[in-house]
Specification:
Elements lengths: L15 H4 L2 H17 L5 H17 L4 H7 L4 H13 L4 E4 L2 E4 H27 L2 H10 L4 H30 L10 H28 L16 H7 L1 H15 L1
Antiparallel strand pairs: 1-2
Helix pairs in contact: 2-6, 2-7, 2-11, 3-6, 3-11, 5-6, 7-8, 8-9
Amino acid sequence: MGAGHAHRLYRHGHSPVHALPPHTKLAAVLAFVVVVVSTPREAMWAFAVYAGLLALVAYAARVPAGFLLKRLLIEVPFVAFAVLLPFVAEGERVNVLGLSLSVNGLWGAWNVLAKGTLGVAASVLLASTTELRELLLGLQRLKLPPLLVQIASFMVRYGDVITDEMRRMRIARESRGFEARGMRHWGVLAKSAGALFIRSYERGERVHLAMVSRGYAGSMPVIDEATASRAQWSYALALPSAALVVCLLGWTL
């Protein structure tokens, strides 16, 4: 899989959550999200319990609340969509602070906000405690099709290549006194975008030729074999197991 690859969401640490094998954490987060989505929206107390479970995981992983909340801003577009639901949905209406809102829309907004926020929070915790390289190894260990794992690996690494090229081109423009201030500079930016595409394509070809010359034949070598003990699986699956109990209570109570 190549060398280690850090990313902005990752928070270096030595907690028990960091030490878990990546495929156990991937399976635990997926199971937790499935359980959360399966919970009836009327069981509002259940979502509070889910949030408490995630808070315990964050405490065990030594992930500060500010770090987590800052990265939850990624769901702002979904929040905006949820806010509109009570106004555009049809059905029974109710007056709230002088506004006529749809009952079904209110439940729908709550459903999107609660389940979406919990899912994003679980994903952020996973990314905060697992490096990208480990995530790719975990996907490989979970028997995801090798081609998809390779595509994800190349996408992550090539994204950094393009970002670095953009940074270099921006520095080159600024060193020549260029500063985009209006529509008259769009032509320069368009030419820069075209040059970026050509450079990225050529660099991709060079990378592929270098891989082929080193024996690449359609599959990446496995350098590290990720394994997990029964105790590690039990520790990782404690979160979705507790969530499953809450979900079943939500359907029965």
